[in-house]
Amino acid sequence: MKRFGWLAWSCIFVQLGAAQSLTFRELCALPDLTQNKLENYLHKKGFKHPGFYTSEEQKIYEKVRQEDSSSIIRRFQISFAEKSVDVVYSTTSLKEYSRLQFEIEASDYYRSSSKKLFQKQNTVISCSTGQIDSTVFYTLQINKKSLPKIKDIVYAEDLLTLTSQEYLTETFGRRNVKTELFYLTATESKKCTIIFPNTSRQAIFLWKDEANLRDLSFIIIGDQLNENDKNINAVLLSDWKSSQGIYCGMSLREIETVNKAPVSFYNWRTESAGLLAPKNKGEIDFEKLKPVFNCVNCGFLYLDTTMDIIQSGYALDENQKVYVGSFVVLPEKKTDNLRVTSIK
User: Fold this and answer.
1) Which residue of 16, 110, 122, 302 has the lowest C-beta tally within 10 Å?
2) Are residues 15 and 141 in the same domain?
3) pTM for this model (two decimals)
4) Strands 322-329 and 203-209
5) Of 229, 255, 276, which residue constitutes the final position of a domain?
């Protein structure tokens, strides 16, 4: 196997060396190289640091070549993260860019309606055009992500690494992943992805990019899809548990124990009944995890309608049988630091 792999990469290198520009297939193979091999290859192909600042995490290599009485700038911008690799290839040649786009569209990648985004298994390719000073660059960004193995997905937070439906399908299998509508209210819905539907392993993924089912907004554990089917008294047990110790069916007193402080939530007669109130503090990181409370007997108890928000201590004193009906897992907010700065 090692000999076969070496021969395969040797063939790629020979093909790359014989061509002035890269093919789509060749570009897609580059993120599979180790950082040292990729950087050595770029150096051998004549790509050098262009002279402006680049960090250790984000390296830029550039080559200028005279072709057809004009100077063509080609640039690689490489970013190695712990579990993903970004290879950004930019060219000032519209002819080359058009050829690459044609090759992508002829491939078996799932494509967006705009034909600017392509997805397949653990690879995402985006196409864009931008201008630096007076120079127009045509860019392909190839992101190849190392997806977790099923045995390593233990807690609900482990699902946060799967930031598109394509990643979910590659990890859990197509038969366990479905596209559905999630009803925020009786009349408002959003397209979502659900894994292991109607089982104790069900989880609902909501996306910022609804059209391409990617860019994770948040994950819901223990909720139902249809607003009409939701019952405030229902206890939907889920096998998913938070790494912070939260699970569906957990009592309010247990929440207090884990949090080592009281929690506040909206009263049962409000439109936001059971939702976590703002400014809760304690051991639980409520910026990453938001439990949604249900109550077994609150429909039969007197509720003080003058209070929009109640504290856990009050609910317990009033003998309200409050528990975690579902919980929302939120990704960390990250900024995209993969930027082309200046070619000066």
Assistant:
1) 302
2) yes
3) 0.81
4) unpaired
5) 229
